Amino acid sequence: MRFGVLGPLRVLDGDRDLTPGPAKHRALLAALLLRRGQVLTVDRLIAEVWGEEPPASAEPVLRVYVSALRKVVDGIRTVPGGYLLDVDPDQVDAHRFERLVSAGRRARDAGRTAEAADELRAALALWRGPALAGIDSGPLRRAYAVPLEELRLTALEERVELDLALGRGAELTGELRALVAAYPLRERAWGQLMLALNQAGRRPEALSVYQEARRLLIDELGLEPGAELREAHERVLARDASPRAVPNEMPPDVVDFTGRERVLDWIRGAVPTAGSAPVHLVLHGPAGAGKSAMAIHAAAALDFPDGRLYASLRARTPGAVLEDLLRSLGCPQGAVPTEPAERARLYRSMVSGRRLLVVLDDAVDEAQVRPLLPTGPGCLTLVTSRSPLLGLEAARARELDVFDPGESVAMLARVVGEQRVRAEPQAAARIAVLCGGLPLALRIAGSRLARRPDWTLRHLAGRLEDERGRLDELSAGDLAVRSSLALGYHALSDRERLLLRRLGALSAPDFAPWAAAAVLGAPADRLLEALAEAGLLQARGLDAAGQERYGWHELTRLYAAERLDGEEGTSGQVLAAAGREILDRTRRARALLLPAEPGSGQTLVHTAEQVMALATTQFRESARWLAAERGFLVATVVDFQRTGLDEAAWRLAFYLTPFFELGAHHEDWRMAAEIGLRAARRMGHRHGEALLLRSMADLYRARGHLVAAAEALQRALSLAEAGEVARTRHRLGLVHLARGRRQEAEACFVACLTAFSAAGDQRGRADALRALGGLRRAEDLLVRSLAAYRELGDPRGEAAVSLDLAGLLLDRRCPAEARERAERGLGLLRRLGDRLPEAAGLVVLARVAMAEGRPDVARGAAEGALGTFREHADRRGAAQALLTLAAALLDLDEIDGAVDAITSSMGEFDVLGDRHGLAGAEELAGEVRRRRGLRL
After folding, report:
1. How would you classify residue 713: left for phi > 0, otherwise alpha for psi between -120 and 50, otherwise beta?
2. I need a surface site. Which of 123, 836, 855, 865 has the fewest CB within 10 A?
3. Does 521 map to a domain?
């Protein structure tokens, strides 16, 4: 049975509507429902049903009403002094609403934004109208309807805030318009409407909303807008549609955490006050002592207003960890510096004004930790490591030792259940002794008991006693971990043990089921679930590609590797067998990123519609898969090279190159390419060495290290096979062009075109035609390149050449034709989701608008492009956008704005060493001087 008070009273039993008809019956039932589980006195019910002047017969009549309701509603009980309704709270929509709101707020506080929004949305969906609509009871309405309505409005605003954080502003504008119309004095709703409009790209409307709200507040209340509405206005003016995110990356707290009160007190006592010097704490101890659990549990109880960051260090470089931390702090992906030293400087800058808690888990040494320490006043760092990190300056260290007997038994009880431990106290104490007080061993032993309710604790203690050498190992440091893991391992089925052993060949911290299937040679989904239930793996949820991911403790992985070597073979043998699947999947993903590359088998002819449908879907699926598997594949490059599988190592590193380039994952790119290059050289594979040198050159060019790029390509040319010489020379031409060596660049492009045409390499031919056409400003070459890209089914190449042609047509004063080309290219890029190329297209479109005499349109396009370039820290693009914006402002007679834009562009061009760009800025500055006599 279900009851509703969030709207007209409703009683439903399945599909039957049992809502009482008489008004007094409805008021009585509403009073009981709103206080379900509570005793309501007769006097209280009389007051709420009849009000301040009840009839003399109210008490006997009330009994009649109760009797009538009992025929409809189960659970109404007579108790001393009154009545009580005993129903599940989820049967009453008001109680369910409050529970869902609380759940949403907990998810929000834990950093689970999407989940929080869904919980609040589900709560709000329960409302069918005003609370207690049709219930004629003033006391009930004052006590419950008004607070419920206020909670509904607050929950609605909180859900809108979460949706804004998720970038859903365009979907919210209609809802928020209705909200401010219904509640015109709620400033928070006005501010949210402004931010939603700004997110939807309707900035002028957002600014006009502020003026509307301000006028209303002054007219109705005589007050200026409050701080929250003013802040929203400032963010719109600054083009920031969302508040600064407060990251909360702490893993879930350990539910069976036990003891450690002294350590917790030590951590709590070390928390710095706001404005005081940052504090760095190191928790160290043997493997399995619970260092990570300790840090996470302590962090869960500490409140830091600007967020809590978490990083699992292991063997990762500080540069790679800094990349993740910067993005967590809100740095856009394209704005993360490529050099580790620059990342460290930006990190210190971003944390300097924030009070943060940072947990750095499983540190190897001091050098790994130093660049990651926050420097802001009031910040706290918790570092876990096997070493005390004595060389870490200004850090306080504390050793985390094993549990004493009492703590060991208490932890076992929390895992297994208090009742089972109380029933066999001696067996519980014996298990604690056999586990040596090591938390990891106790947790594994307890998990086995929890999974086997038919086992007695005495039975498990006997199993521990009987294991050969188990006692010595359980009482000796790392050997204790090994022995505890063996307990779980021997309880597995043959197939489960086989999978666990073979997973030991992988060094990646997590993996998807396809990778487990590759090492096993058979589907592994159910086996993974079994290993997760046994506590040997952890299910970590769905990744960006929709795959379930599994991770494990490093000690579990080491134990699995030992079992592999001892029972089956070497890691190299397992990786060699799995290598084909790993390489094939990565090669296929690469082929989708680079359609019709030689060897992809994708040189097909499609209609324009087919091209877009295929390219958009395939590119996005490939990009999602590679993003999800990036850590796994980079670790596998290392695994291949470590086990002597050099060919697999260099091929995997080469296959990943375009993904690294598109995602600006420079640190992973560098590491994988260097390892792949060493592997190719070690096996004397000239072709592989040439390809990896070419990859390194692409990385150097992306970082602006043009001399190094040229040197790498020259070495690659001396090693390249016939089919790759032209591709290498094409890249050398691009480097020459970037260095201003136009003659050398042209010679490279001409030679490449001849070679590609002779070899039937359609992609190479398209690339060479585009490069040569752009260099010579030759329309016929660009048109031929465009046709080649269309034939290949490559909309990204088609978009790039379309924009090249638009620029060329502008130079020839053909604005109508240029617009057609530019809009075509821009449309393709928008459907592909390529933001930086889209920004470049907007600059071209702005130039077209200028040629058509529409400087207002040019200004909007240039400003849009400038915002994207600055978000991604693209200085060259920003300089071009500024120059185009300056020209538009000049035509609009906004001289001061034009001067500012010209000055900014000059600064960018000067840093870049772009003489051509500086010349363009100087020419525009001359026009300003002509108009106003201004000297720049």
Report:
1. alpha
2. 836
3. yes
Q: Do 132 and 10 fall within a single domain?
A: yes
Statement to judge: residues 105 and 77 lie in one domain: yes
| pLDDT tens-digit map of 798-832 | 899 999 999 999 989 999 999 999 999 998 888 77
> What CATH number corresponds to the domain at position 17?
1.10.10.10
Q: pTM here?
A: 0.55
Return the structure tokens found at 341. Answer: 């030293």
Supply φ then ψ for residue 898, to 5 degrees: -65, -40
Dist CA 653 CA 648 (whole Å): 9
**Same domain as 537, residue 409:** no
Q: How many other CB atoms are there within 10 angstroms of residue 129's CB atom?
A: 11
Phi, psi of 16 (to 5 degrees): -90, 135
Q: Count of domains in the chain?
A: 5
- HSE-CB at 819 with a 13 A cutoff on CA atoms is 13
Q: How far apart are CA 301 and CA 499, in angstroms?
A: 38
Q: pLDDT tens digit string along 2-45?
A: 999 999 999 898 888 888 888 888 899 999 989 888 888 888 88
Specify whether 395 is located in the same domain as 434.
Answer: no
Q: Between vectors from CA 632 to CA 696 and to CA 588, what angle results, nearest 5°?
A: 70
Q: How many other β-carbons are positioned within 10 Å of the β-carbon of residue 814?
A: 17
Which of 379, 399, 419 represents a domain boundary (last residue)? 399
User: Measuring CA to CA, which residue among 930, 926, 882, 929 is closest to residue 903?
Assistant: 882
CA distances from 569 to 482, 498, 552, 575 (A): 19, 12, 22, 11
Phi, psi of 83, rounded to the nearest 5 degrees: -135, 160
Mark whether 385 and 413 lie in a shared domain. no
Give the residue from 569, 584, 618 where a domain finishes: 569
Cβ contacts of 27 within 8 Å, gap of 6 or more: 48, 49, 135, 136, 137, 140
> Is 259 in a helix, a strand, or coil?
coil
Residue type for position 908: E
Distance CA 484, CA 256 (A): 18
Q: Whose CA is closest to 845, among 886, 874, 881?
A: 881
Report d(CA 64, CA 58) in Å as an integer. Answer: 10
